């Protein structure tokens, strides 16, 4: 691989510090959008006496400590790098321990890293000729990682000999990780947006939690009935105070999922099907983002998408949010908050489009072998990939949907309501992003444009999306 090429991808990756996230850890928007975190003790920190105060020197460039676990004992452990560092990481660690216990004589070293650090370390190690034996990241990035020569094709490794069958996985997902006829990864799960909603607040508004709104017009009617200010007034009531809203109908959550989902519902999108043109400034895409802008600034049923606002999960946990568009990984949050879970149901993501068109973005944690792994490392990686994929019932306890369709129908999986609903949703209305060799730059461009379009009440949505589209067209025009 050419060093210049690797340098290019590394620089592009560094532009996107928070990449498609993972279950459990994946309320990644939370750190940016939420207020200050409480102290570790859970209460206010006592102010120390003046003479005891010492200035703490913090290195802003310090690298977060990775979560390293060793499983088993042997001379040549499999080296695995991934970003599963949240509640899903605990389930994943159990899976790895089970694998070692069921395969005596094997061992591995698992290193969990924040995604931004992972995407710095992985290209650098591969360029240096010292890659790990196996990595886990996301289907969305496979096109770019493949274009930069960072991944090994897996057809001859695990598919052609019958170890795994491509037909056992979601067709759209397999298409997205098949680049120039080569299957570059093995799907581990399906994850993405699901509708989580508070049934108590719906019923208190006189609405039926089992008959949700079917299109954007119906949702707006619901939203105006669900939203209340601190005086109990609705946005349609005289005297409603939009500066002091107590309960919101819906919130603008992580753009990486909310943007494509809404645009696809309206018939727009980021890229056309073959990735040669952007649809960001199409009338349909503009209408989709204008709908969100109106929810925030005209109808006052969603909090404005401004820096410093509370993360949707915090609002929801305090009965201040009714409809929450959040990821499958929220299952871990619900397990940890049974009082919240008792008031919650899940459903297919609700359509905001005029015609009720239902589409939802989903992604996948994928298993891949980096370029340069030796024959023994490939053999070890193959064995672990097959095990992880074939034992998806256990992975479902993390809240994520097992990738194999047959496993999705297992009784243990169907018993987890959110996982069962998400599996059906992704198979019926799920859609993956169009793979592209510059996906991370494109992602940054469309998120920035939409952020600008929603930043203020007087923002010109069409103009902001047009500006973002021009940036994307410049990216697409490169050789």
Describe the overall structure.
The strands form three sheets. Strands 8, 9, 10, 11, 12, 13, 15 and 16 form an eight-stranded mixed beta sheet that branches. This protein has a six-stranded mixed beta sheet with strand order 1-3-2-4-14-7, with helices on both faces. With 479 residues, it is α+β, with helices and mostly antiparallel strands. The chain has 21 helices and 16 strands. The protein starts with a helix and ends with a helix. Helix 10 (255-266) crosses helix 11. The model is unreliable at 1-60 (pLDDT under 50). The protein folds into two domains: 3-33 and 65-188 and 364-390, 3-Layer(aba) Sandwich (D-Maltodextrin-Binding Protein, domain 2); 192-362 and 437-476, Periplasmic binding protein-like II (D-Maltodextrin-Binding Protein, domain 2, 3-Layer(aba) Sandwich), CATH 3.40.190.
Detail the topology: elements first, then pairings.
Layout lengths: L2 H12 L15 H4 L33 E5 L6 E5 L4 H16 L5 E5 L2 H13 L6 E5 L3 H6 L7 H5 L11 H6 L1 E2 L2 E2 L2 E2 L1 E10 H6 L11 H11 L1 E2 L15 E6 L4 H12 L16 H15 L14 H6 L3 E7 L2 H7 L1 H4 L2 E4 L12 E4 L1 E4 L6 H16 L1 H4 L5 E2 L2 H4 L2 H4 L2 H13 E2 L7 H15 L7 H16 L3
Parallel strand pairs: 2-3, 2-4, 10-11, 13-16
Antiparallel strand pairs: 1-3, 4-14, 5-6, 7-14, 8-11, 8-12, 8-13, 8-15, 9-10
């Amino acid at each position: 691989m050419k060093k210049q090429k690797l340098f290019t991808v590394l620089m592009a990756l560094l532009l996107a510090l928070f990449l498609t996230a993972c279950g459990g850890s994946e309320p990644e928007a939370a750190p940016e959008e939420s207020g200050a975190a409480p102290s570790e003790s859970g209460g206010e920190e006592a102010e120390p006496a003046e003479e005891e105060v010492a200035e703490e020197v913090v290195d802003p460039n310090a690298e977060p400590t990775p979560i390293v676990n060793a499983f088993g004992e042997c001379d040549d452990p499999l080296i695995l790098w991934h970003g599963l560092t949240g509640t899903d990481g605990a389930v994943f660690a159990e899976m790895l321990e089970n694998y070692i216990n069921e395969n005596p004589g094997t061992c591995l070293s698992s290193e969990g890293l924040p995604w931004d650090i992972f995407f710095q370390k992985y290209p650098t190690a591969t360029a240096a000729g010292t890659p790990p034996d196996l990595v886990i990241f996301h289907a969305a990035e496979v096109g770019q990682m493949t274009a930069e020569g960072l991944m090994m094709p897996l057809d001859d490794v695990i598919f052609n000999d019958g170890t795994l069958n491509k037909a056992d996985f979601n067709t759209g997902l397999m298409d997205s990780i098949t680049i120039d006829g080569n299957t570059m990864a093995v799907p581990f799960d399906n994850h993405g947006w699901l509708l989580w909603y508070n049934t108590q607040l719906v019923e208190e508004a006189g609405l039926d939690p089992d008959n949700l709104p079917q299109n954007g017009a119906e949702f707006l009617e619901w939203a105006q009935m669900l939203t209340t200010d601190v005086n109990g007034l609705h946005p349609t009531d005289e005297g409603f105070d939009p500066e002091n809203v107590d309960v919101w109908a819906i919130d603008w959550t992580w753009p990486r999922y909310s943007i494509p989902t809404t645009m696809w519902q309206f018939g727009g999108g980021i890229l056309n099907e073959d990735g040669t043109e952007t649809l960001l400034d199409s009338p349909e895409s503009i209408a989709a983002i204008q709908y969100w802008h109106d929810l925030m600034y005209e109808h006052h049923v969603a909090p404005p998408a401004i820096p410093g606002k509370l993360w949707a999960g915090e609002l929801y946990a305090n009965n201040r949010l009714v409809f929450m568009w959040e990821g499958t990984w929220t299952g871990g949050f619900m397990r940890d908050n049974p009082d919240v879970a008792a008031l919650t149901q899940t459903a297919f993501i609700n359509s905001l489009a005029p015609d009720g068109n239902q589409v939802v973005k989903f992604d996948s944690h994928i298993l891949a072998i980096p370029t340069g792994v030796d024959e023994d490392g490939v053999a070890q990686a193959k064995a672990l990939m097959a095990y992880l994929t074939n034992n998806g019932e256990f992975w479902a306890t993390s809240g994520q949907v097992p990738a194999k369709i047959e496993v999705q129908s297992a009784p243990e999986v169907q018993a987890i309501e959110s996982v069962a609903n998400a599996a059906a949703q992704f198979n019926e209305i799920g859609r993956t992003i169009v793979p592209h060799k510059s996906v991370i730059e494109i992602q940054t461009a469309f998120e920035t444009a939409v952020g600008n379009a929603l930043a203020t009440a007087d923002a010109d949505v069409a103009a902001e999306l047009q500006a973002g589209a021009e940036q994307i067209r410049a990216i697409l025009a490169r050789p």
